[in-house]
Amino acid sequence: MKDLLNGWGVTAAVFLPLVGALVMLAIPKSEETLHKVVALVTSLAVFVVGVALLWDFDYDHTAVLQYGQDKSWIELINARYLVGIDGISLPLIALTMLVVPLVIIYSWDHFPAPHNPKAFLILILVLETGMVGTFVAQDLLLFFVFFELVLLPMYFMIGVWGGEQRKYASLKFFLYTAFGSALMIVSILATYFLSPKIAVAGQGMMHTFSIPELAHWHGGGLARTTTLLVFGGFFMGFGIKVPMFPFHTWLPDAHTQAPTQGSVILAAVLLKLGTYGFVRIAIPILPVGAKAWAPVIGLLAVIGIIYGALGCLAQTDMKRLIAFSSVAHMGYVMLGIATLTDFGINAAIFGMVAHGLITGMLFFIAGSVKDRFHTLEIKRLGGLLLQAPRMGWLLGFSVMASLGLPGLAGFWGEFPAILSAYQPAEGLNIGLFRGFMVVAALGTVFAAGYLLWLLQRVAFGTPTEEFEDEHIHDMHFTDYVAWTPMIVLIVVLGIVPGLIFKVTNQAVVHSLIHIGS
Amino acid sequence: MLASLLAASSDFVRPEFDWHALAPELVLVGTIALCLLVDVFTSDESRWTASSLAGIGMLAALVPILTLAYDNTDRVLFGGAFVVDDFSLVLSGLFLVAGYFTILLSTNYIAEGDYAEGEYYLMLLSAVFGMVIMASARDLIGIFIALEMLSIPAYLLAGWRKRTLTGNEAGMKYYLMGVFASAVMLYGMSLIFGGTGSTILADIGDKVNANFMDEPIAVLGIIFVLIGFAFKVSAVPFQNWAPDTYEGAPTPVTAFLSVASKTAGFVAILSLVYVGFAGQADIIRPFIFIIAVLTMTVGNVIALRQTNVVRLFAYSSVAQAGFILAPLAVFGESPQSSRDALIAVVTYVIIYTVVNLGAFAVIIAVSRRTGTGEIASWGGLFTYAPALAVSMAAFLFALGGIPIAAGWYAKFTAFTAVVSGNSPLGYIMGVVMAVNSVIALGYYLSLVKVMFMDDVPDGDVTPIRVPVTLGVVVGAAVIFTLAVGIFPSLVSDLAEGATLALLTAR
User: Fold this and answer.
1) ipTM score of the complex?
2) Does A175 contact chain B (CB < 8 Å)?
3) Cα separation, A296 vs A254, whole angstroms
4) Sign of dihedral through CA atoms B397, B400, B406, B412?
5) pLDDT tens-digit profile of A367-390?
6) Residue of A nearest to B496 (CA)
7) Predicted local distance difference test score (pLDDT) of residue A92
8) A-proximal residues of B, 318-337, CB under 8 Å
9) How is chain A split into domains, by residue range?
């Protein structure tokens, strides 16, 4: 078992969805139930592999890359199929593998127009390959390919199955991210050529794309300006994906227009690719650049917190409001990262998982509201607790989790991130970061404001005249199945945050050894 | 008479003939002669034989290329004017495959339209013959002859739809511009020959490196020759023939012009730059830098505004030419960057050729039904021809450089090359390329959007009947696109071998 997992575990997790997608390609379009079953079975198989990986993971040495695979991929430039899992990637991989089957279950009876479950589910499976691949890749080029691969299915999901403005939103989503990626590839190549050559079996001395090797080198001997510029390229690539203010404008459009399933995956996993990139690549490989950029990142993060909150207050559409709240929440994650301390980055990773679960949950509920009422305009809604009490309570629960109520997962993402700004890494301006801390703390007040106001307008009161006499179906069976695991996790992680902190801590500390905090 | 003349010139030695080395060219010449004869002696009803014959001839010419590759020795003929090395073999092979694909694209198109079938394939064969020679030519005269051998049939092919005004415009514009370019190039060649006393590129390389280098006239010669080829590859500011020619020419010919004859131009530039003018890198770098930046930017920006799919691809091919030229902007900064630039160009042309031919196959298949090239007529293609739409999307993403379609690796090698020199100019080029690849995605995605997200314009959703020949091209190109996208080594090994041979040639 151990040997099998070591040799094939990660590869199976990455490519099983593709196998499922290929099988589905061969099945005629009209066999809808069969498509659903194949997709679900595939994603569950991936989930089972994931559970096995989690089970067998050595939690005492999370800084060590486990289940590693190292095969030649493009010999000419020494790009390798180098994959593995450590404490930083493990929680995110688990999150991905959990969310995908839930999304498929949720889709079971509500496929958005224009229907076509075959194409829709194939896209979700391709997306899963891209997401898991990004989290396991330990080679810069391999990472880049998976990072980009994610774009395509999401583009089609938004563009084909989305709302009114879907064409505009999908194009914007694609072009923004592609622009970041294009600059990032220049930085990746600069890193490749500027780093020293290493010995490669059978090929003599070659440059390398290996992330562990490059982190080991950590930009030693580079001129400061070069480091800053190269880090800048990474910053653009990852910052747009997060998204950070002022590159966030694609997010509200993409979220609002995407079908529910797309929004959930986008919020739960896709946004994390950016923050993960900072933690995995930009900071360990270029610590000097990271230190120089940290005040800028911190500043943009707190601007994002406040701006996202103010944006939320101004929204009239429920989904758009949740999207803006994502901007704010990712601001906390980025603030934690900007401190460059193990405390902050541990909090950031926790924040990623928590935000994935909570905002994913919020989008699920928003999707169901849209399904029942055919609108998400807040002023036309009201009295959800009366018409669909279970959904109403769950909305209340998710809102509480999202605003950071202690005892639920959201708290552990937000509070330590704010706290970490009190004592940033050595060499960073303490006064500045304490300023950030105060502003970020103010942001939580705003968050409570807009989220509770949302809850009040949507769930409390009586239904508007429009929907007064309509029979609103409360949760479907698929909703129960899809939402229960997420709610359970939100509670469990809120009570036992150590589940994640214990996994990430060693790996984070290891990734920061050259920061010197 | 001739014999006595030859006897009088005592230093004339009959050149050694290496029949094996010349076999690909000879097979093509034989096919051309055979096609001509068959066309003369067959009736109109059996003209389809021409297409089969031409196709078989191209594939037959691939056989000696494979045996030569297996033999794996560099053969130098005619005092260095004609060289068979890995570089020429890889590119000859590419030209023959591209030629064969073009025949497949043409079969139905030419047979169904009222065109002169026999002559069409004859012209196509002659053009491919010129391209194959170009891959091996290492001599100014040889390059010029190859170019004309390729261009003159291409002028005729471009004007093949002689009953339409646009067809005439296409041929005329291409011809006038082409002749002008040839004249400029010949003038440049004469200057170089005057200064060095040789037409063999390897000799010129030595001379240009030595005393002739300081002469301004050498610079003029080099620039003129490069400008001549800039016309061929439709680099800005010498691109203005391309859109009209592409639109007016029969679509299979457009496909041929946009990949094959263009690639021949790049091959000539590579031979000239790497063998002939290697010592003059300081002149070539800024020249190429400006041309490349202009080409990709102008091509991309104009492409954004196109409403006709063929014109869109015309400007897209202009922009792609900029990407192909870009790596040469760091030529000679270091041995590493020269090598990377060469690998990048060869990789790029291989991938671009196949992907673009695939895209044109889809264009031909779709316009068979819609009868127009307007982008709007592609609305909702996914609903009634999902396979074609998905294939086209794969090609468009490949051209845009999005993994896992093969194009990402082409773009990546170009980025690799410009960054490898670690020079400010290279990094600036990298950023320009990054910005441009996003602009390019703008119009590639707009076509994807029309295919997948727009409604069918006339509500007619009967499936498209795709002829077998087109289906083969689309299928092969899709398989290539995905296979190379996932395993780039398939192409990178080829490109690496090909380019190392050219580097050691001098």
Assistant:
1) 0.88
2) yes
3) 26
4) negative
5) 888 888 888 888 888 888 888 888
6) A76
7) 93
8) none
9) 2-511
